[in-house]
Amino acid sequence: MTEPGTEAMNGPPAPSRDEALALLRQMIRIRRFEERAAELYTETKIRGFLHLYDGEEAVAVGVMPNLRAEDAIIATYREHGHAIARGVSMDGVMAELYGLREGVSRGRGGSMHLYSAAERLYGGNAIVGGGLPLAVGLGLADRMRGRDSISACFFGEGAVAEGEFHESMNLAALWQLPVLFVCENNLYAMGTALARSESVQDIAAKAACYGLPAETVDGMDVEAVLAASGAAAGHVRSGAGPYFMECRTYRFRPHSMFDPQLYRDKSEVESWRERCPITTYAAKLRERGHLDDDTLKRIEREVAQEVEAAVAFAERGTLEPVEQLTDDVYASL
What is d(CA 290, CA 303) in angstroms, rounded to the nearest whole number? Predict the structure, then answer.
């Protein structure tokens, strides 16, 4: 196991200017989408549960470039960022938040159940830890079919308290399955501090005890995640078995839009905002001469147009006809 940030010290060279700007753009796309979704929620355009990814963008954006089109993605209910980073249409994601049939899950899944067969995005899972056994199953299927693909499973540290975590780590290691486990440790799960729920707070150590190679990564640093996930994906793809990454990150917003967030101080949130993965990376790119005011303004303008186009797409959307509501239902009364 390694301490945050050390894993990339002797790793690959820094991304090129174009690659770096692409990483920054992707994080901005996710952030602006989430901010707009929050506004639409307060306007009751979006209903139900809504879990936003603000602050954690560097994890999804850092991992996705190291995955191939044939690889599978499994995420949690906080998965808008994963879907967008994977290449799922922003239009389709927004329409799904609206509950419309033009959405990626035909309006049946909403915020917590985004799904796209074309991008091999298998959820969006509302059950804490529910994606872990799915990843093991997908990895087993790839192994049995002799496919050169891996499954990347994103989950929060709250899932570590579930039995599925231990069962999945054990089976993945026992059967040497091609699964990359990515724990997005934002310290609070649904609303309980890690120190109040886990006697051992080193998440990577929990995976390592099952025989998985495991490391801790600075989840607020997109390049650190990019470097670590590149090596991890290579390990898994080589047939060497599963790999575990604990990305230490932080969500800037409450657990969900219903959460009064009484379990942490505002001063703590503000101190973490100083480590915002977007602003710190933009500053780093400025130091390298890769970014100037005009370029940043152009990116922000283009992203704003894309987000508003997605809102317009959703506003034009339609509800599923009542006569189709029982389609794809396994059994009806």
Answer: 19
The residues spanned by each domain of the chain are 6-315
- The answer to whether 94 touches 311, Cβ cutoff 8 Å, is yes
Residue 212: φ, ψ to 5°: -85, 140
Neighbours of 156 (CB within 10 A): 24
Strands 214-218 and 243-248: parallel
Separation between Cα atoms, residue 11 and residue 290, nearest integer Å: 21
**Tokens 């035909």 belong to which residue?**
106
Q: Could you say which DSSP state residue 15 is in?
A: P
Distance CA 20, CA 228 (A): 16
Q: Pull the structure tokens for residue 242.
A: 């599963």
pLDDT tens across the length of the chain (333 residues): 444 444 444 567 899 999 999 999 999 999 999 999 999 999 999 999 999 999 999 999 999 999 999 999 999 999 999 999 999 999 999 999 999 999 999 999 999 999 999 999 998 899 999 999 999 999 999 999 999 999 999 999 999 999 999 999 999 999 999 999 999 999 999 999 999 989 999 999 999 999 999 999 999 999 999 999 999 999 999 999 999 999 999 999 999 998 999 999 999 999 999 999 999 999 999 999 999 999 999 999 999 999 999 999 999 999 999 888 888 888 766
pTM over 0.90: yes
Q: Return phi, psi of residue 170, to 5°.
A: -65, -50
CATH code of the region 6-315: 3.40.50.970
CA 37 – CA 20 distance, rounded (Å): 26
Residue 200 to residue 289: CA distance in whole angstroms:
42
CA 61 to the chain's CA centroid? 8
- Tell me the C-alpha distance between 294 and 274, whole Å: 23
C-alpha closest to that of 52 among 215, 258, 306, 211: 258
- Residue 227 near residue 64, CB atoms below 8 Å: no
The CB density around residue 14, as the number of other CB atoms within 10 Å, is 16
